[in-house]
Amino acid sequence: MEDYEKSGTVFIAYKGREFSYEDIQRRLNSNCPYNYSINHKEISNTGIIFAKIVYDSYMEDRDPFWNSNNKILTVSGYNQDEITNAINDFRRYRLDDSDRYQRLINLLYRDHKCEVFKILSNYMHFCSVIWDANSEELIAGVTKPNNENTHLYIGYTKINHEVMYSNSRDILSYFCNEIEEVKNNTYIVNGEEFNIDGTKIKDDSFIPRTRQNADNLLDNLNALLFSITNEAVKDKINKNLEDYLASPDPQKKISDYLTKELNAETKKALLELIKHAIEEFNTENNINHLLRTIFDKILEDYTKTINVPVSHSIIINNTEIAHTTGGFYHEKYEQILRQTALDEPIMLIGPAGSGKNVAVSQVAESLGLHMYYTNNASNEFKLTGFIDAGGTYRETEFYKAFKNGGLFFLDEIDNSDPSALIVINSALANGYMAFPHETIDRHPNFHIIAAANTWGKGADLEYVGRTALDAATLDRFDNIFFDYDRKLEECLYPSEQILKFMWSFRDAVLKSKIPHVVSTRGIGKVYKKELNKIPVPDILTSNVVKNLGQDDLNMIIGNMQNINSSNIYYQGLKSLKLSR
To answer: What would the pLDDT profile of 91-145 be if each residue is shown by its tens digit?
Structure first.
């Protein structure tokens, strides 16, 4: 603690999501023996926290300093006499306020970027950490002319190996597993090290790494796991879940998953496999490859248990056409989005309740388009509109989308009047459309998606009310088969009892060739009722059995496989007696 008493202040600059400001405060409270106050600035959506810990109440500086106009955040350590003399040579900045010390460094960085370290090295010894929100760069540097006692340390947090800086090694030891001192007259930009004159130092000493020896693998297993965990999280979770992880609860969920379940299972699997493979994999690179292979499999298995939403970045011709926030998406979502963006009319063909409506609304949202919805075209006027007795034109959803741009969704197209669909054929072929009151050109941002339960060939045993579609209509559309997505169902309705039962029941219905729908929507209804503690027999009769007779039910039960006999829904189904 001697450096605290001598300097009066220390600072922390942190970029990551392992700690919140409250976590930092809590660790300081439990470790620091002296009274102190802590000033901090937190930019929560970026995982940036800068704080200055003041041990002497008479200190005047107010670190950290945030320049909201230029989006620059700084925190620094310096000698006050030296920086006061420096301020006298920078009068153009009119530094006459209580923040003048820190503001000088902030303003110099704004005007000169990393040259600030070279400029101020002529005046003073100091260390500083800067967050440039415009370029999303974390810059840290230290100047020590005359061998003055200014130090800057970089550390990597103990679990996720995230970056933290401080002018106190002791402070970093509360948070970090690996700590190094930043060299004299250098600065670091996002992990790359430079000399004060701007020349790059060809050395990877500030890139997070693991120092292990292959001959001593088992003794260093924990360090190896930290390295692999960090890489896997960034590649498999943080890359896709940045928006989702911005809130506290998901962060805790992921953190608990990694530190408790995942590491324990990983260690167990590694120790068993390495015992047999250690002779063959006798170099450090080969061992790392082995561990990453094992870890990827374990990560994939455990990811299913936490059901985290994902985000999508859709790129066509090197241009990002859509970026989604964290959410749950059908396995065909990206295909639908890409083909819609290519201006292809699409027909989603799949069973009822598989999530077609939700997927189309997600595509519209991702493309920044309003969705216009029509449930089948029972006649031509449902698409073209009409002029009423008073002479007023009655708009349709199709008209508004065609004229103003948007995503027009025609649900149950196979329940439409085939002659009415000629309107769509004409509009898509010609690029213009004659409505009752005007002829208009198709808007450049007009897109169309249709949904059907059949392939347009007419009714079948399950969908008896469907009509056959004209060949010209079918030819206009790209067909995408949109089946039930079990991974999506697993994410949306995380109840193993329900999913195992409903999947087995669905498979048995298909095997029995009985016309009965077991949909994603139906699973959602069962899940909702379970959460609200509705009795199992009531759930089964309301949302599972429905219109089945006892003979059909018995056949389905006889064909159910991959179901545990202790499953409460399976037990309830077998004891169910239908009156019809």
So the answer is: 888 787 777 888 888 899 999 999 999 998 888 888 999 999 988 899 999 987 6
Structure tokens given for 372: 């216009």
Three-state SS for 507?
A: helix
CA-derived radius of gyration, the chain: 32
Reported as type and span, the H/E element at residue 137 is: strand 137-143
Using CA atoms of 141, 146, 148, 154 in order, give the dihedral in degrees to the nearest 10.
20
Helix (H) or strand (E) holding 54: strand 48-54
- What is the phi-psi region of residue 387: left when phi exceeds 0, alpha when psi lies from -120 to 50, beta otherwise? beta
In this predicted model, what pLDDT tens digit does every residue of 555-574 receive, in sequence order?
A: 999 999 989 888 999 999 98
Kindly give, in sequence order, each residue whose CB lies less than 8 Å from that of residue 336, ignoring residues fewer than 6 positions away: 346, 348, 359, 360, 363, 449, 480
Q: How far apart are CA 65 and CA 168, in angstroms?
A: 20
Domain residue spans of the chain: 2-195, 214-306, 314-481, 487-574
CATH superfamily of 314-481: P-loop containing nucleotide triphosphate hydrolases (3.40.50.300)
| Alpha carbon 19 to chain centroid, angstroms | 19
* 2-195 placed in CATH 3.30.70.2860: no
Same CATH fold assignment for domains 2-195 and 314-481: no
Average pLDDT of span 367-393:
88
Strand partners, 163: 15, 156
Report the C-alpha gap between 371 and 242 in whole angstroms: 27
Is residue 426 within 8 Å of 433, Cβ to Cβ? yes
pTM of the model: 0.48
What mean pLDDT is reported for the chain?
78
